[in-house]
Amino acid sequence: MPDLPPQLVDDLLRAFPQSTAPIRQLATLLHEQPLREPAFDDFGSALRELAAVSLEDPRADFTEDTEGELVPQADPLMLFEDTTSVCGEFADALQDVRDSSGEKRKPERHEFPRPGVTAEAPSTAGTLHEFHAAGPRPAHPLSPRLTQPGTVAKAGPTGDQRLAQDWNKLWLGAHELLRQVVYHVLRRRAGLVGQLGLGPCVRGLASAAGNLRIHLVGHGLGGRLAGFTLRGLEHSGEPSPSVQSLTLLQAAISHFAFASSLPHQVSGHGALWDRQRLVRGAVVTCFSDADISLGLMHPLATQMVGDAAELSTVGRKWGAAGFDGLHGVDGPPALRLNDVLADGLPSASFVNIDAGSVVRDGPVPTGAHHDVLHPEVARLLLHHIPR
Questions:
Q1: Which phi and psi angles does 19 have, rounded to 5°?
Q2: Which of 26, 38, 203, 316 has the fewest beta carbons under 10 Å from its own?
Q3: What's 320's DSSP letter?
């Protein structure tokens, strides 16, 4: 059963020095795993304390990867729904992946034509053509929970059924809930550091050496940091410098981050919309449908309070670029990694690259998220970052 090793507790205490009490309480609860529901209420309260920031705190502005929505959101649903039910949903979602791990995944996805474009045959590149959306979509979602409209969290069992719950399963879900709340806090921090830290630093470097070629490469949360760095290049009253390239490897950022509009609602756009103009070359995004962390847990964990997304599925609205590429951008259909290595990058502002041929291995719950250390990926970087 899940427990937090002492080294991990120490790491959390160093990363969040102002949250000593909730971290120790969370570690104690995961160690003891009381077989009663009030313990999950305490678990949820400690998680909210760990993640809480005031509205005046600059971190509060870096929760979402979209902007301009009618009702701005700042709090993830997982923190404010019934904690016991959320733990159950997370545990069930991970079981969905384990149950399907032995099935052979089909590489084909069916193509849907854009206006004026003839329908194509199934593609091994994994692209789905949609109006104003160049993003690929997987043939088989990692969990059926991602294909339903609205939010995933539900009330859960009641009465005698609630008393007869599988407590061991719920504590497995609690362990995953803690992982996702920590990831939420770090995701928020990555946006802040990119825009308010690295961005001004890069702007200063560019001012000091006008012919400097700067390339940004980010993996996971580093991809969100690198993306938000583009926002930090801008400064009121001054011309904005540009970087030579931006490469996102399994980026933990919304697949709508660069979109000029959001197809599931009437207002809003990606938080990095129009920032591609600050990249002289292409924004290259590598993705893999074997990335369980981004393909399953990211959309479940980034749903926002008060946002039901009834006109869109969970995976569509809250999907991550590292799982199915950037959506809502102008660009060619997704390319296979081997084809890019053989033919080079196309001339385009955005290029989605299916790296699933090599980014394939890893255990539940992260899957292939960290499986990026491959010669093919290194060769891609050399293609995109010429000397």
A1: -120, 35
A2: 38
A3: B
Statement: residue 325 has pLDDT above 50: yes
Nearest Cα to Cα of residue 328 among 316, 337, 341:
316
3-class state of residue 284 by DSSP = strand
Mapped onto helix, strand or coil, the DSSP state of residue 243 is strand
Token duo for residue 95: 């079981």
CA–CA gap between residue 298 and residue 47 (Å, rounded): 17
**H-helix or E-strand spanning residue 53:** none
> What are the structure tokens assigned to 370, written together?
């960290």
The pTM assigned to this predicted structure is 0.87
Reported as a single tens digit per residue, the pLDDT across 23-48 is 999 999 999 999 888 999 999 999 99
| Whole-number Å distance between alpha carbons of 291 and 114 | 28
CB 253 within 8 A of CB 293: no
Q: Are 380 and 341 in contact (CB under 8 A)?
A: yes
Query: Cβ distance 294 to 258 under 8 Å?
Result: no
8 Å CB contact between 29 and 171: no
